[in-house]
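Notebook B, p. 112. Complex prediction, attempt 2.
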Amino acid sequence: MTLTVSTTPAAAREGAAPVAPVAPTTGALRPLGLDEVAITGGIWGRRQAVNGTATLDHIERWLEREGWLGNFDLAAAGTLPDGRRGREFSDSEVYKYLEAVAWEIGRLDASGAQDGGGTDASGARATELEARFRRIVDRVAAAQEPDGYLNTRFGRPGQGARWSDLEWGHELYCLGHLFQAAVARHRTRPDADDGLVGIARRAADLVCAVFGEGGDERVCGHAEVEVGLAELGRALGEPRYLEQARIFVDRHGRGSLADIEWGRSYFQDDVPVREADRLRGHAVRANYLSSGATDVAVETGDDELLRALDGQWEATQQRRTYVTGGQGSHHQDEAFGEDWELPADRAYSETCAAVASVMFGWRLLLAQADAAQADPRYADAIERALFNVVETSPDASGTAFYYANTLHQRVPGTEADPESVSPRAKSSLRAPWFEVSCCPPNTARTFASLAAYLATADASGVQLHQYAPSTVRTRLDDGQEVALEIATDYPAGGSVRVRVLTDASSPWTLALRVPAWAAGATLAVRPADGGDADERAVEPGYARVERAFAAGDEVELALPVAPRFTAPDPRVDAVRGSLAVERGPEVFALESVDLAGTTLETSDFADLRVDPATAPRDAAGSAGPAVPPRDADGAVVVTLVDARTGARADIPLVRYHEWAERGPSRMRVWIPLLTAEA
Amino acid sequence: MTLTVSTTPAAAREGAAPVAPVAPTTGALRPLGLDEVAITGGIWGRRQAVNGTATLDHIERWLEREGWLGNFDLAAAGTLPDGRRGREFSDSEVYKYLEAVAWEIGRLDASGAQDGGGTDASGARATELEARFRRIVDRVAAAQEPDGYLNTRFGRPGQGARWSDLEWGHELYCLGHLFQAAVARHRTRPDADDGLVGIARRAADLVCAVFGEGGDERVCGHAEVEVGLAELGRALGEPRYLEQARIFVDRHGRGSLADIEWGRSYFQDDVPVREADRLRGHAVRANYLSSGATDVAVETGDDELLRALDGQWEATQQRRTYVTGGQGSHHQDEAFGEDWELPADRAYSETCAAVASVMFGWRLLLAQADAAQADPRYADAIERALFNVVETSPDASGTAFYYANTLHQRVPGTEADPESVSPRAKSSLRAPWFEVSCCPPNTARTFASLAAYLATADASGVQLHQYAPSTVRTRLDDGQEVALEIATDYPAGGSVRVRVLTDASSPWTLALRVPAWAAGATLAVRPADGGDADERAVEPGYARVERAFAAGDEVELALPVAPRFTAPDPRVDAVRGSLAVERGPEVFALESVDLAGTTLETSDFADLRVDPATAPRDAAGSAGPAVPPRDADGAVVVTLVDARTGARADIPLVRYHEWAERGPSRMRVWIPLLTAEA
């Protein structure tokens, strides 16, 4: 099953790098950036709108309130460590927020450019965010030391010495996020000259000086600096940063960090990256490291490393990933379990691990040698994680979040206090902020840059990997401009209509991903000139149409999004004898609030069984739930039976990413099968 | 299902309190102590022999080596905190070791008394242990401060202030263990005057002064002082100590401790004891608190509290206890999960939680109002935990231990370094010592005093709760002496023969527990005078024979110990569609080492299924395993099938408490059923 990937260099890029988080200098597939792809509606459009307003405002308010921004002021004033607040990694939340704001400004700028000047509203918002961004950068800048060192927790009298606690101190981790924020700024407003890029450059130079060959030979306990350095090197054309990323990646697995109770696998310092066969240890660390290692492999042409990473990705997806795309089954160390150790009830499935898995999968997707042979598994996995974990974390308002994303809630939780900091994985309801609050800014930066994960281009044409109402405008390698408009109500509906807006100067290929679950999909091409439509069945993979497209041509992909049962791998003990229900890319869940008013209202939630003889079906025509969920389109109904009483009822399921939005409730993704029980 | 228990006061005790860890002043059932019950062979006899020699020597060597004993010398020398080693609770391991040595001396003394002077060997060992005990007590005494305060971690310049960290500091917890050690000393060698009782008394007086009514109103984050104070009060006839225990018990659940990430349920400070309906939070803390609360309820005649505790015990046994009797399913906080949250693969099942559950269950057993109505569930649960958790922790040599006792090992672990301190719950193999090393001395004190958990007496006669080759000599309330000799190879065999050694002056009743699994048991009475034997079927519960016994009379209980499948409660998601195999009180396990040489040798362990159509059976006549386990008697064979290949073989199972004694291996207690799999 292992995919062959290689690092065939692509033709040199035309013009500037894409306005995107990841811009390899080699590889056949070129990611299209925020200046080329815009999401115009649907679930992701709604999320981007909420994210760019309510969520960003929410995060900045809490960063101030908790003093994590104020720490930089204290550093500048020379009063630290007195008054410092937050955990050792709190600086990083500021940097992730800056990154999110930078992408959001870029998104608004692109939207304005598409509109031919922008709406007043989006322009005003961009102006406001720009001012806020600059104010925070000024505060960060004031805290940087003359030699480039930047951290509010280390290095001053009364604090730990610089680099004295690489296992837990997160200094390099924080800088990795600083670098990613600088990349976002450099790619979205390269001429803004607000100083963030300079801050990052000075810090990166220090890192290279301290940790370069012949220097300190350790790594950071929380990977992130690798991926940050690699992209900063790409963005600034600075090979030293990429080389430093390579050094860090190579150093992992050589025991440079102290052993800890959970073992060195916790920070991937147990086995060298190229020798490992699984992701293991802390799930966020593992995916960040893998992302940085993929960048290093691609930029250095290290095919052995790339193949090793691809094998790890595959094994991890097959054996260590929840049906939701979530990763990490241990609460104790936020870590992967062994193969098949995927308990639903103690699923940790940290939001940030899903963000990180999207980063890793996207880099592998881009590393593929040949679009004609492109493997859909990466985009399938990215879609799964986006819909069922990343989108599960924030609620509709964008101001409360899951840190961990359990697949089974036995006891209804309690409402989080909207004015209090919550423990990270305690409640069954989303909380506004956490003592460890990495997920709000991590989802925010992902949503703000989401358009950059939808499409790629190569010498032959354009590839669409994710479907949303959107527009694509790019220039192919042969110089011709291509513009597309995608209309779809996916994933509620399965129709994806791509309207070509440009006349081709020569034939090019449009490739559309057909997800693995979409057996029976069809593809229709409808020429603008009224010629005969061509319709054909397409297999999971990438469906391709090569054509000298004319403006007005339409390509329609019809994906069968009927509800379906999903059986677990029989080696996953925790959910043996159970079924999940999916519909398109969305996982559904049974939520106790939906039992109200049915004959199962008084049943013990643990006694409910699904009747496998009755397939899950679209809810259209069924009685709706007592409390309607947010999104009524594409709702699903299953027939449940109380194993104790024999009572039976049709019960609507809720989209997993919308669960716990209607008050405290019980929930389960995997529903036990009705069988003869003792 | 809730048992009715009450605190009917019994007749005043004749003579001294039993030589036993628990000696209620009320209650119908009087525990028989080490001076009345001796284990003479079998599995527990072997364990006691190893425990009293190799294990005690091992523990003392590690206490010295790790500096946990040396901390007391540093305290006496006034050099603390410099050089202090070990965690905040390391003092307690010294006290538990002292308790274990005291019980072992008592056991050897009783054995000597039975032999009419004792063997040279046991007498010499007792003398050696006595000298070691006194040397350690002297070192502890030197560290006690004039006002009675005793702790090597707090109270000195450079250390935290006394009682400044009740959430995590374990000061009162350590004293609780000191009190239990003093109780053991007081009851085994009351005239020895080595000072431990005085040390405990001074410390207890300080606790009462500081934490009494009107004083500091908090509790200790780790319950234990309650049960220690209660028993010290009983032993010394000091009502103030019992009252202080009552105060602490009543204070729990009122939020006197800080909230923490895992919630106040972690230290049972969420709900008052009498209002709770489940054990919850940290499993050791919960059981220690419940034990102390039971003591308080019994001594104060608080029937409401006792009923609440009994309900909690019942619900916890039914819904939050593994088939092994283990408790606690969370690694992160060593805590109970929700009802039915019992994953096999992440079972924490801490050894100390099982020790603590035996303490709690035994106290409820003793609290029963009427032997004629005695409920066997307490002794059933105690037996389950003893055989399948407490005996699982140490290996045959008694020098390596499990801290946690998983029910499913997917990946063979690595051998623990015999000269290194291990993380507590990492390896699949037992380790000699842990950074948190509570289990070695906790099992040691339990095994040394195990004879005190076998039998009780009341006005009507003698009750046997646990079966081992043993002798019982006691005086009934009516003054007549009764002596019994129990011969059995239980649990390998199901025959328990009780030979009466004394002529009765009036009829009395012998009660024998029939475990819940023992449907089809029979009881035979064979008079010494050659009269007709009386044989009858007996139901699970207590089988009773009332008779004017004559010396030579024999009562034989025949328990059907044929192997059996055990199905899980259908509400336990983690092991749905699986079966366990039990035989008598012992749980068996499939261990990968036993696949060697069979057609399943190369199977993926995750693919193995048990064929429910083929019952588990005694291994007699079958080909033995490639590497024989320690105890070949009563081995069990099941028919397994490889779900992938269809290969089939008869595979011997290993007693769960003997697993991982033949090198690293995979293991599972719950074996998935062979079913049609996709």
